[in-house]
Amino acid sequence: MENRSDGSGNPRTANIRWLDLMVEDVLAAPPTRSGSSFQELLEMLHPHGIKAHSSPRPDESFHWHADIAIGAEIDVVRADLSAGWDWRYSYENSAGELAISLLNAGQAEMLIAGKSIQRTPSEIAIVPLPTMQAQRVEAVDGRYSSVTLTLHTGVVTKVLSATFGSTALEDLNLTPIVDLSTGIGQTLLQLVRTSTTGLYDGILVRSPKASALLSEAAIQLILENVPHRLTDRLSRHPLDAPPRYIRRAVEYMRANPHLPLTISDIAATVGVSSRLLQLGFRKIHGTTPIAYLRQIRLEAIHDELSRPENVLPVSEVALKWGFTHMGRFAAVYRTAFGLYPSDTVRRARGFCS
């Protein structure tokens, strides 16, 4: 059995906390598609690179509910299966993809790089898909249910490169199982719930800025808090980034707040690692690059809402700039400017009249 994360230490989750995303518990909700034929399930999954086969028990029936939500950097698969069938599946064309998977019911056994890993509902699985050879799932008390979030190759590679240089995901030897009772386990659970909600209600599709930040924050969270082969590199004391790099980063963010920027994008543009960029911002500005970018975008929203000619509702302006939870947005806006967004609009319209 693989080593498991003990969840010691406090996960560094600042990048996730500020993401203003509406969180609803969609993890336990029934998927939207259903059927009683295993072939129908295969036909639904196969276009998305999931290859499955089964070992049916002829004397028992089979029913399934499943669906898939696809985003720019993240996909989510929800599956709910009846008892009576054991089945295995693997992923095709999955080089560089990273999966985070929860069990609501049932049990599973993964074969990762030749090693057998058991899964239960009290744990969350973190799997580089190139290393997963197969997974056997089984219903318990009549039910198997799972939610799997997959981070796409592009964003995974970008974060890995910004953090460790030319390192392949499959070479990290990530600890595959994390206990949900730990701090990092709870944070990952919240992350999967947030991402699933954002994909199914369309928020992450409508706000590429929020989607880009969430997907990168998810990978960075795992790299910094789940043990792997290069964990010791993160604990080394790095050199400080020269102030000129931080100035360039600020200039770049102010010139491009409309783009779906991430820490990796900014770091690559100015020529430093993501970690050095974050440490430099904390030393010089007393905050993170993402928090600094959020303030720049708040200023852009304030400017847009202050224009008499603006006809967009507050919610659309906020979403355009990456804020998807209106209650939280209104609170941070009031903290920044001393009034609510709606007050800014009223003042602008009063001036116009």
From TrEMBL:
GO molecular function terms noted in the UniProt entry: DNA-binding transcription factor activity; sequence-specific DNA binding
Keywords: DNA-binding, Transcription, Transcription regulation
The keyword Phosphoprotein belongs to this UniProt entry's keyword annotation: no
Domain of life of the organism encoding this protein: Bacteria
SUPFAM superfamilies in the record: Homeodomain-like
Cited InterPro entries: AraC_XylS_family_regulators, Homeodomain-like_sf, HTH_AraC
Domain HTH araC/xylS-type: 247-347
Entries under PROSITE patterns matching the protein: HTH_ARAC_FAMILY_2
Gene3D superfamilies associated with the record: Homeodomain-like
Name the UniProt record assigns to this protein: AraC-like DNA-binding protein
